[in-house]
Amino acid sequence: MQSLASDQIQHQAILVDYLIKLTQNCELCTLKKITWWQHCCTICQQKTFRVIHCCIMLPVMATWTCNFSKRDWDGHRAVQYRQQKSSAYEAASMGQGCLRYLLTEIAKVDCLKKADWTPLMMACTRRNLGMIQELLSHEAAHMLKNKDGWNSFHIACRKGDPAVIQHLLLANPEVWRTESKTLRTPLHTAAMHGCEEVVSILVQRCGYVPDGRDSCGVTLFMDAVRNGHIFVAKLLLEKHQASPTAADIPGAQSVHHVAVTAQEEALEFLVRDLGVDVNQTATDMQLTSLHYAAKEGHTGTIKALLTLGAGTEQKNRKSLHMACTGQHAEAVRTLLQLGLVDVVDASGTTAQQLAKKPDVLRVFECDLTSTTSGSK
């Protein structure tokens, strides 16, 4: 008798596996003709949860979710709770039509998953206005924050869909009044990602202060230029009174930031169009853009800086030391070819003494050889 019951359960498990395969293949017509699936699912609940999961994740299967009982959904929700997920979260992340049913019958609209992401946040990553409207109609909270201090508006600004931004501002005109744990605003996020239309909306409709800073002192304009978004930088200059010479907490200006990120077009924009001093120093160490470029090993940026007027005189002599500190052989070679001479710094150390990698040491050996040959 016990063997018969075991065989029956095994047979039903095989049938549910067949159901899973049909679900994964989106064979909705075949599924609708099957009358025995609910009985099998009652016996094999763990496998039933996999069927539900497939229905949530696949667009064609979304409408079939209403066939499951509340007990099935409760069990599925318990499994997902242990996995730090939720049905509504997954439906929102995939942009599926079953979300309305889930919100009406089963799921909580502001359920959280690992890292404190809500369904509304996930819908914003998909730039799915219909899904966002559905969640907001069920009173999804705009201002809930994830572990980094980002709310749904931050995420929407990163994705850069103007229609989504307009709708979120319409639903809650104060949603822009938020900062991450590092004091970054949604406008920082939009400027950093080059979302020009979104930046324009935020500058016009929200009360962000010019040159608002994050916890490191980085301004909106710095975020735009160091990521190469010149059109956004121009917009901030014209519409938001941004300063191209504002400094962060260590003292670095935009001209130094673009040298670090090798944004040569932005560098030319700052120096030639805006008149920023290419030899401007930063921090207590009096570092110039040439120092920053050398430390990062950006050979092209080093050449661009020299074309724009960066001098190799006293204030930039440490460039060779910086390139050696970063162990950048090509940058060292470029600086030596441009005429920089290896001299001791304030601590009595030469750049060559900082060289550790064989290819950097070879650059100095070749330079010494060529100098000796030239003197003969």
Automatic annotation (TrEMBL):
Pfam families: Ank_2 (PF12796), Ank_4 (PF13637)
Subcellular location: Cytoplasm; Nucleus
Alphabetical keyword list: ANK repeat, Cytoplasm, Nucleus, Repeat
GO cellular component, as recorded: cytoplasm; nucleus
Main location: cytoplasm
InterPro entries: Ankyrin_rpt, Ankyrin_rpt-contain_sf
SMART domains on file: ANK
ANK repeat copies, ranges: 285-317
Function, in words: Required to prevent the misactivation of serine (Ser) with tRNA(Ala) by promoting the hydrolysis of Ser-mischarged tRNA(Ala), thereby playing a role in translational fidelity. Binds directly to the catalytic domain of AARS/AlaRS and captures Ser that is misactivated by AARS/AlaRS, preventing the charging of Ser adenylates to tRNA(Ala) and precluding Ser misincorporation in nascent peptides.
Assembly behavior: Interacts with AARS; the interaction is direct.
PANTHER family xrefs: ANKYRIN REPEAT AND PROTEIN KINASE DOMAIN-CONTAINING PROTEIN, ANKYRIN-3
Protein name (database record): Ankyrin repeat domain-containing protein 16
